[in-house]
Amino acid sequence: MRKRRILVTGGAGFLGSHLCDRLLQEGNDVICVDNLFTGSKDNIRHLLDDPYFEFIRHDVTQPVFVECDQIYNLACPASPKWYQKDPIYTFKTSVWGAMNCLGLAKRTGARVLQASTSEVYGDPEIHPQPEEYRGCVNTIGIRSCYDEGKRAAETIFFDYHRMHGVDIKVMRIFNTYGPRMDINDGRVISNFIIQALLGQDITIYGDGLQTRSFCYVDDLIEGMVRLMNSRDGFTGPVNVGNPGEFTIRELAEIVIRLTGSNSKLIYQELPEDDPKQRKPNIDLAKKELGWEPSVILEEGLRKTIDYFKQCL
Description:
Elements: E1 5-9, H1 14-25, E2 29-34, E3 53-57, E4 70-73, H2 80-83, H3 87-108, E5 111-117, H4 144-164, E6 168-173, E7 176-177, H5 188-197, E8 202-205, E9 211-213, E10 215-216, H6 217-228, E11 238-240, E12 245-247, H7 248-259, E13 265-268, H8 283-289, H9 297-311
Parallel strand pairs: 1-2, 1-4, 2-3, 4-5, 5-6, 6-11, 7-10, 8-13
Antiparallel strand pairs: 9-12
């Protein structure tokens, strides 16, 4: 039987590299496309000698011409530090990248999955967030390049589906963590772990009572693959994340305990448009994908801490 040829944009990134691992393990032929703006060859170095893995350095704001059966579009800076570095480029990557993936899917007949985000809900007025919620997003804030870029990408995905019959899947990813996170990406889990391991004060923005839900990378990739291979006609959007909810202060205290650090908590001003609550309603994922997370926060944090120890 012919191997499926699967294109992964952003394949050298944190999530993309784990997805490439999974797809190769399942016996697929994987094409990884990444311009290495935030991705790293180190994440895929162990794959470069695999005869069924191909790396192409390419920017998804430009069309890519390959033959494939499935497309996972993961290309976009995902941490505030990086997506705010060049907000115009971030928006282009979300929108033009989506359009180029959809154009390729239209030409090849491939199924295409869009890695969207919980940030489409903005600073939510409904808790937890179901897929039907349309969000509360600032269109002109410092986070808007990412939030609105992902919302626009969802729009064009459904327009291509309605106008051209493109076979789409849309996944809204909630905070994900695990090995291969960029040590300098500025996200809360990587920040806390690095500060704790170095014995530095742990920086909490705001009062630390804002909540997040953290999904371990293996659980996330399982949900992503299940969505791609879900029944015909089911497009999503579907939330994939861990509904276990923790305050930022609780997270800091857990990291200090697991690392055995003597770090102290310090508080700084909350950034603009930082959501007060984030928790997915995953009823749809349970129903359609038979999916729910299995890795509890402390278990995932231990694995992530072990990874960062090797990086320091």
